[in-house]
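CATEGORY: protein folding

GOAL: derive C-alpha cells
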Amino acid sequence: MAFVNGKKEGTARRLKKMKKVALIFGTRPEAVKMAPVYLALKNSPIRPVVIATAQHREMLDQVLSLFGIEADFDLNIMQERQSLAGLTSRLISKLEEIYSENVFDATLVQGDTTSTFAGALVSFYHKIPVGHVEAGLRTENVYDPFPEEINRRLNGVISSFHYPPTENAKNNLLKEGVPENKLLVTGNTVIDALLWVTENRSVLTSSFREALGVEEDEYILVTMHRRENWGEPMRQVMKAIKDILKEFPKMKVVFPVHLNPAVREVVYPELEKHDRIVLTDPLDYLPFVSLMEKARIILTDSGGIQEEAPALGKPTLVLRKTTERPEAIKAGTAKLVGTDRDFVFNETVKLLRDSDEYRRMANAKNPFGDGTASKRILKHLCENL
C-alpha cells in the first residue's frame, strides 16, 4: 500500500475526509456543557478542534483537566477588570487569526457568553456554519442578564443549527422566525456532564466536605457572580444570609466566591468573619458537584445550577429578577426570589421550615433532559455536514 506523508494511503484519505468542527468556549459553565459534546465528537468521524478563549482562566482549566480536554488553541484572553468592549475586540482579533489560517466545516458555541458571540461572529465572517448549543433561552429583557441576553439573541440570528434544550426554548426561536428544520430539541448537555462525572469519577467521598467542616443537609450552598447583581444587590443578599444563620443556629453556609474583584470586594467584608460561613475560592467541578449533592438548599444567580440542581433533587432559590430558564420555575424545582434582603430571608426560612414545600421542590421532575443531549447533537452534525 502506498504511503502519503508517512501514513498509509487509506488512513491519509480518511483523515483528509474527516470533518473538522471548532468548539469555542472560555468560561467554566461553557466548558462543563461543551465537554460531553467534545467527548461525543472525539469518538466519531468528526474531529473536534478546541479553541479555549480562557475568558475565565483558572475556572476553565479546572474543567479541562477533569474531562481530559486539551485545547488546540488557547487565547488566554483574560485581563483584570476587563471591559466588555475590550474583551469582545480582543476575542474577535485573536479568533480571526485562527480562522484565517485554518479550515473548519462548522463551529459550535454554547450559551450566552462574550466568547460565544465573538466565536459565532468570526465564524460567520468566514461563511462557516454555526451550531448553537443551548439555543433559544430568553428573558425578554435586554439588560437582564447583561450582556448574556443580547449575546444569545445575536447568536440566534447568526447560527445555522440551533440546539434548544427544551420545547420552550424551541418555541422562543420559532417566534423569532427560525425555520423549524434548523431546530433540534436536545435536552441540556449539563445533565450529560453531571451524569458523566458521577459515572466516571464516582469517588465522590465525603473527604472534601469534611475538610470544610460541613455534613449532609446542615449547610446552604451559595453562589453569586452576575454583573447585574454587583454592588448593592449582592450586599443585600449577604445581609440576608447572616439573618438566615441567626434564625437557624445549627445551619452553615458554603460560598465558593467568584474571582472577579467586583464580587470579592462585597462578599468578604460582609461574610468573612462569620464562624458558620465557609468562603472558598472557586471550586473544581468535581468537589462542587459533591457540595451540591449534600446541600440542604442552594441560593444562586447561576443559570447552570438551575439546570443541575433538579438532577440532584436540590431546591433552588434564584437570586435574580428574571430567568431564561422558566422551565425550572414551572416545574417547581426553582423559585425566583430576587435580591431584596427581607424577601430572600423570608423565602429561605419558609423553605427550610415547611417540609411539604421542601419535598415538593426536591421531588419535582427535572425539565432539562435525560443525559443524551450530546449524542443528539453528534447525530445531527453527522447528518448535516
